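Consider the following assembly input.
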Amino acid sequence: DQQVKQNSPSLSVQEGRISILNCDYTNSMFDYFLWYKKYPAEGPTFLISISSIKDKNEDGRFTVFLNKSAKHLSLHIVPSQPGDSAVYFCAASHNAGGTSYGKLTFGQGTILTVHP
Amino acid sequence: EPEVTQTPSHQVTQMGQEVILRCVPISNHLYFYWYRQILGQKVEFLVSFYNNEISEKSEIFDDQFSVERPDGSNFTLKIRSTKLEDSAMYFCASRPELVGNTIYFGEGSWLTVV
């Protein structure tokens, strides 16, 4: 199942710089996208989301950009901090109705390492 | 901050044994989910549950799996006869009614089948 792909398995960034994590999807029915962060031995933690009616959503240091024509989204973290080091998952959903909410298709994750 | 709690955190079981993984969703949430992540693979949807019945299930969720909400707080995943390939981290998640797609995950139960 390759409907959601994160092509970079890892990313290394210096503290204070921008981290850009990328995600591509193939299913044009997806209309809601989320980013989760995951530390080892913990569950995914919700970071930020975006609906397909928008192309940008910002929350503090985190901004998600959506390019529907390219079926691409990205997560920008500015400035990056060592505590941001984790695995970042992109996820997508198709809102076919109330019970389909929350049925997420995940990418394989990108390991972000922020060096002090 | 309210959170989803799961028990056990880690369980080792013999192949063919039954396993029950337990979850306490966030108290005012009405939709419940199980996901799993096999080591080195993606997080995968297993099943969604609402109003005491399964809303949707994936191909993975075959007859050896079942879910139940036996009381007002617990949400359980039962694997009737475990196989080696069931070894994975199982995540419970929940979301409030009418609030988009954001679901909140527990810390996971790591199941090892030997």
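The two ends of chain A are 36 Å apart (CA to CA). Ask yourself how this observation constrains the way the partners meet.
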